[in-house]
């Protein structure tokens, strides 16, 4: 057993780097470049459990070293151990596709397409429904039983994930002998590389097929449009 009072963010970050290296070897044949792993407040990404930057954003001043950012949201460190593993492996799939030149999201990086779906299924994720979410596509994959068993057998310190960002009001309520307000029960979003899609605006939006370039316009922010010639979902420009 670890002493919870001695756990630091540095300890958790170090363990996440260890997890990344284990997963890189086990699931990606060691092909992924080492990212800058961070633990930050999700801020305006209120329901995002984590993200991977779409381009390298960390590195040296002269650019000789460049790294992607892989982040776990501080507010969700309170969740179950396998939720952390689910999040980091989810974001590693995005990183894998970034470095191999595969586009696995569209619509401002909110919609997860079939490239994402096929890869996570290959790694042992499962879907409750064999139907994409109209806004986020195939993002709602969860680690399956066999994948969890494989991860449980890895030398990972599960107890290190003992602290989380709850906020001042939460701890103030505890100190005053009150019951803290319930933490959000809203299903978090596994988000990649950006905010959730903005609300629809009055102006029209252009949607383009990524293969043949055919374009159409709509006045709705979130629609499913498919090119019947290329069998591709049209992407918002």
Offer a quick outline of the entry.
By secondary structure, the chain is α+β, with helices and mostly antiparallel strands. It is 28% helix and 18% strand.
Lay out the secondary structure.
Elements: H1 9-28, E1 36-40, E2 48-52, E3 58-59, E4 66-67, E5 69-73, H2 81-100, E6 105-106, E7 111-112, H3 114-123, E8 125-126, E9 142-143, H4 145-152, H5 168-175, E10 189-190, E11 205-208, E12 215-218, E13 226-227, E14 232-233, E15 235-236
Parallel strand pairs: 1-5, 2-10
Antiparallel strand pairs: 2-5, 3-4, 6-7, 8-9, 11-12, 11-15, 13-14
Helix pairs in contact: 1-2
Q: Report strand %.
A: 15-25%
Instruction: Indicate the structural class.
Output: alpha+beta
Structural shape: globular
What is the number of E strands?
A: 15
Provide the succession of SSEs: HEEEEEHEEHEEHHEEEEEE
Give the termini separation. Answer: 52 Å
Contiguous runs where pLDDT drops below 50 for at least 5 residues:
184-202
Radius of gyration: 19 Å
Range of helix content: 25-40%
Count structural domains: 2
Total helical segments: 5
Largest sheet: 4 strands, mixed
């Amino acid at each position: 057993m670890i002493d919870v009072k001695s756990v630091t963010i540095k300890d958790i970050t170090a363990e996440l780097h260890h997890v990344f290296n284990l997963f890189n070897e086990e699931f990606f044949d060691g092909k992924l470049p080492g990212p800058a792993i961070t633990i930050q407040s999700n801020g305006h990404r209120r329901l995002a459990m984590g993200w991977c930057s779409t381009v390298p954003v960390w590195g040296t001043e002269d650019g000789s070293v460049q790294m992607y950012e892989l982040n776990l949201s501080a507010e969700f460190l309170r969740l179950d151990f396998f939720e952390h593993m689910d999040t980091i492996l989810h974001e590693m799939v995005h990183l894998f596709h970034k470095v191999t030149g595969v586009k696995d999201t569209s619509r401002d990086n909110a919609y997860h397409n079939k490239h994402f779906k096929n890869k996570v299924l290959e790694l042992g994720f499962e879907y409750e429904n064999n139907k994409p979410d109209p806004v986020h596509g195939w993002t709602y994959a969860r680690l399956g039983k066999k994948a969890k068993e494989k991860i449980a057998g890895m030398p990972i310190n599960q107890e290190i994930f003992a602290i989380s960002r709850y906020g001042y009001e939460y701890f103030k309520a505890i100190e005053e002998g009150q019951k803290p307000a319930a933490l959000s029960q809203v299903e978090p979003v596994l988000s990649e590389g950006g905010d959730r899609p903005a609300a629809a605006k009055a102006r029209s939006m252009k949607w383009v097929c990524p293969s043949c370039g055919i374009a159409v316009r709509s006045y709705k922010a979130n629609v499913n449009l498919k090119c019947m010639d290329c069998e591709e979902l049209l992407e918002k420009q």
